[in-house]
Amino acid sequence: MNENKSILLHICCAPDGSVPVPDLQAEGWNVTGFFYGSNIHPHEEYSRRLEAVRTLAGHCGIECVIGHYDPEEWLAGIRGLESEPEGGLRCRECFRIQLEASAREGVRIGCEWLSTTLTISPHKNVTLINELGQEIAGSFGLKWENRVWRKNNGFLRSVRASRDLGLYRQNYCGCVFSREAGRAVTG
Fold first, then answer.
1. CA angle centred on 48, ends 118 and 172, rounded to 5°
2. Domains and their CATH numbers in the chain
3. Residues 97, 105: contact at Cβ < 8 Å?
4. Which pLDDT score, from 0 to 100, does residue 3 have?
């Protein structure tokens, strides 16, 4: 058991957190959520996702720290990568930005462990995410909890949990570029 081990869980969105949060709690972790949303466009979408994260946190009985919303700062962080395809270097840098913000928050509030919900998505490179997480956690003096949340039907469980909890479930990753890519595929 992981009794009394404090972990900061980066929550990219409520549906993706709907499995990791209760699973970590069941393992005995003391979970604090962290929602970083500066990559989310437009602001109305950010607001919908934020409300869903708050609903999830309330349902699970965890504290969830909300990072400051600064899309201009995020855009500056990925500058030069705007034309990268989905899943390319822009996404890698976005993961880095989110995980570094999470690590800073973990240090600030005194957690010793860090993890992310990003690995529940069947569309994301879990090896890359866990490698970045390990590197970033270590550089901040934290331990990385290496998880692939989509294993054991994690993604399907998140779809069911989201429906059961009435959580808003988005149809694109979050940034303006993923939104445009989604429109090109679906529209």
1. 45
2. 6-186 (3.40.50.620)
3. no
4. 65
Supply the Cα-derived Rg of the chain in whole angstroms: 15
Please say if the pLDDT value at position 186 is more than 90: no
120-137 exposure pattern, b = at least 16 Cβ within 10 A, e = fewer:
bbeebbbebbbebbbebb
Evaluate the CA torsion angle 171, 176, 182, 187 in order and state its sign: positive
Q: In what order do the strands lie in the sheet with 113-116?
A: 63-66, 30-35, 6-10, 113-116, 143-144
What value does the mean pLDDT take over residues 93-107?
Answer: 98
91-108 average pLDDT score: 98
Residue given tokens 């602001």 in the structure block: 43
Q: Whole-angstrom Cα distance, residue 124 to residue 155?
A: 12
CA torsion through residues 95, 33, 159, 169, sign:
negative
Q: What digits encode the pLDDT tens for the residues 136-176?
A: 999 999 999 999 999 999 999 999 999 999 999 999 999 99
Cβ proximity of 111 and 8 under 8 Å: yes
Cα separation of 74 and 174, whole Å?
Answer: 12
Q: What is the pLDDT of residue 53?
A: 98
Tokens of residue 25, six digits: 């709690």
